[in-house]
Amino acid sequence: MEEIETCPAQRLLKMLSGKWKAEIFRLSVESPLRFNSLLRQIQGSNKQSLATALKELEEEGLLEKTTIKLKPLHIEYNLTEKGKMLIPVFEQLEGLS
Amino acid sequence: MEEIETCPAQRLLKMLSGKWKAEIFRLSVESPLRFNSLLRQIQGSNKQSLATALKELEEEGLLEKTTIKLKPLHIEYNLTEKGKMLIPVFEQLEGLS
DNA sequence: ACAATAAGTCAGATTTTTTTGACTATAGAA
DNA sequence: TTCTATAGTCAAAAAAATCTGACTTATTGT
Predict the structure, then answer these.
(1) Whose C1' is closest to the CA of B73: which nucleotide?
(2) Chain A interface, best mutation among B4, B10, B42, by max A CB count within 10 A
(3) CATH-assigned architecture of domain B11-96
(4) Which residues of B have a CB under 8 Å from any CB of A?
(5) Chain A residue numbers touching B88 (CB-CB < 8 A)
(6) A31-54 burial, b for 16+ CB within 10 Å, e for fewer?
(7) Per-residue three-class SS string for chain A
(8) Residue B53 in contact with residue B60, Cβ under 8 Å?
(9) Is pLDDT at A48 greater than 80 in this prediction?
(10) Nearest alpha-carbon partner for A77 in A36, A48, A44, A43
(11) pLDDT digits (tens, 9 = 90+) for B18-74
């Protein structure tokens, strides 16, 4: 079903809607993310949902996935430039609470 | 099921999540809202969903419902002070798109 | 008096999101 | 070589959100 976009902020809001995305985003501001640590950090969450959220955040261009080819060869998710542009919005939001 | 709140911005984000809330919020910035007009303005929406969204926005303290006891006796929804505080967040969000 | 408009509610159906549990593939440690 | 960790995927189930259509009650307009 095609959704027409009427409200300009809606797209951005939608980007961060979903049960775990805001939390993932917040943690990504602090440091690079790794799948299994996230799973442990965000209690109540589950693999599938995190995997989906990460994939979507990636598709939206807020996070980028990198394979670190060092010592213990692993995968990292980092905020992109676009993602970083959202930080002030979050800060403002937090200022209101 | 009890949800624990970890991310500070999450509550605010949740306030405006839901298919129609952002749009309703945006329209409320422009002028007071009336149920049936909203229903006509927001194409694709439906009574039930709008009723629920309005009720929730009210509970969250972003909108307030007033019965206008004049000429054609009707009901209006207006942004509260709290609601108005969110305007700059929306503006910032729109600036990014 | 009669029809229309406003502002809903209610139950049930449909859709979307989120969760569960089982399973996979690769790397490193003991 | 066996065990553990990482980083997932897949199908199915469960839960949450949204939509539909019928119905309501009060107020206006004709």
Answers:
(1) D27
(2) B10
(3) Orthogonal Bundle (1.10)
(4) 3-4, 6-13, 16-17, 22-23, 25-26, 42-44, 85-86, 88-90, 92-94, 96-97
(5) 92
(6) ebbebeebeeebeebeeebbeebb
(7) CCCCCCCCCHHHHHHCCCCCHHHHHHHHHHCCECHHHHHHHCCCCCHHHHHHHHHHHHHCCCEEEEEECCCCCEEEEEECHHHHHCHHHHHHHHHHC
(8) no
(9) yes
(10) A36
(11) 999 999 999 999 999 999 999 999 999 999 999 999 999 999 999 999 999 988 999
CA of B48 to C1' of D17 (A): 11
CATH number attached to the domain at A10-96: 1.10.10.10
H or E, element range at B53: helix B47-59
Q: Which residue in B65, B66, B82 sits closest to B16, CA to CA?
A: B82
Q: What is the end-to-end Cα distance of chain B in Å, rounded?
A: 35
Greatest Cα pair distance, chain A, in angstroms, is 48
The pLDDT of residue B4: 63
Whole-model pTM: value is 0.92
